[in-house]
Amino acid sequence: MLLSKLPILDKGHVALISCSLSKKNAFSLEIEENLDVDFHKKMRRCSHFTFLVKAPISILLYLANFDVRITQLKTRSEVETYAPSPSDVSTGDLSLDEAISDDIIRTSEALTINPKAYMQDGCAAEIAASILPVSTYVTCIISGYYPSFLEICEHSKQNNKLLIKGLISKIEDVLNSEWQNE
User: Fold this and answer.
1) 51: nearest Cα among 16, 22, 75
2) Do the beta carbons of residue 119 and residue 127 sit within 8 Å?
């Protein structure tokens, strides 16, 4: 299956795997079965979405606070971490932004090297991985119903979460395309 991967952050992406019900399908059912007008609005609550997401652990920890299911997938790729650009740091001082960005990148690289060495020494993988930074990218399946994803979008807008903005805007785009700004 070829997915349309929408990029987020520096190395991540989000892709819709499936949507169980869209406005177009619900509206067709409404007409075919001669149901109440606005039946499709009621059906929106039953619409189930499944996304493939590659994002830092910190974003998944945020999403775990909502009524969605997150299933981590094992990948064969190298461990990657989010590397903020100086503009992402945004202290207002460019030289400080660059210094902080560089420090985060170097620290993350160091923390991703240690677990590999521990595992080569015979350490259990889950113990070695316990020191990975929350900026480490993981690939997962996130699934849930329309209202849950809508709640995530609304909550993140109210709380102005920088790292999650890209993912949320992509999810919101998908919700809007499936339900056409309902």
Assistant:
1) 16
2) no
pLDDT digits (tens, 9 = 90+) for 46-83: 788 999 999 999 999 999 999 999 999 987 778 889 98
The H-or-E segment that residue 170 falls in is: helix 165-179
The candidate with the shortest Cα–Cα distance to 59, out of 6, 136, 118, is: 136
Total residue count of the chain as it appears in this document: 182
On whether the pTM is more than 0.85, the answer is no
Alpha helices, DSSP H only, in 1-138?
A: 23-32, 39-43, 57-63, 86-89, 94-120, 125-128
User: What would the two tokens of residue 176 be?
Assistant: 């809007």
| Partners of residue 15 on adjacent β-strands | 52
